[in-house]
């Protein structure tokens, strides 16, 4: 779930994207990876994008899973060669 707050870049005095959670600025091409880091850590984050739109990304309570499935010892990962 994402909430949008209204804030213009001029109001914030910014030239880049800004993560309010980390109190850091990011280039617009790198902010998506930073947002993914918050998702991977299941942390909510608030980001103001270069367009001036501010979104609150709710990852702490979302069902997004960063778990990688593993193969059980009884399962065969590869078919037998023969």
Mean pLDDT: 74
How are the strands of the largest sheet arranged? 1-5-4-2-3
How many H/I helical runs?
2
Major beta sheet, specifics?
A: 5 strands, antiparallel
Question: What percentage of the residues does DSSP assign to strands (E)?
Answer: 15-25%
Unreliable stretches covering 5 or more consecutive residues: none
Structural class label: alpha+beta
The termini sit apart by 50 Å
What is the succession of H and E elements? Answer: EHEEHEE
Number of strands: 5
Give the secondary structure arrangement, pairings included:
Blueprint: E1 2-6, H1 9-12, E2 17-19, E3 24-26, H2 31-40, E4 45-48, E5 53-57
Antiparallel strand pairs: 1-5, 2-3, 2-4, 4-5
Describe the structure.
The protein starts with a strand and ends in a 25-residue tail after the last strand. The protein has helices at 9-12, 31-40; strands spanning 2-6, 17-19, 24-26, 45-48, 53-57. The protein has a five-stranded antiparallel beta sheet with strand order 1-5-4-2-3, with helices on one face. A hairpin with a 4-residue loop joins strand 4 (45-48) and strand 5. It has a domain at 2-57. The longest helix has 10 residues, at 31-40. The model has no long low-confidence stretch (mean pLDDT 74). The protein is α+β, with helices and mostly antiparallel strands and 82 residues long. The protein contains two helices and five strands; from the N terminus they run E-H-E-E-H-E-E.
Brief characterization of the structure:
With 82 residues, the protein is an alpha+beta fold. 17% of the residues lie in helices and 24% in strands.
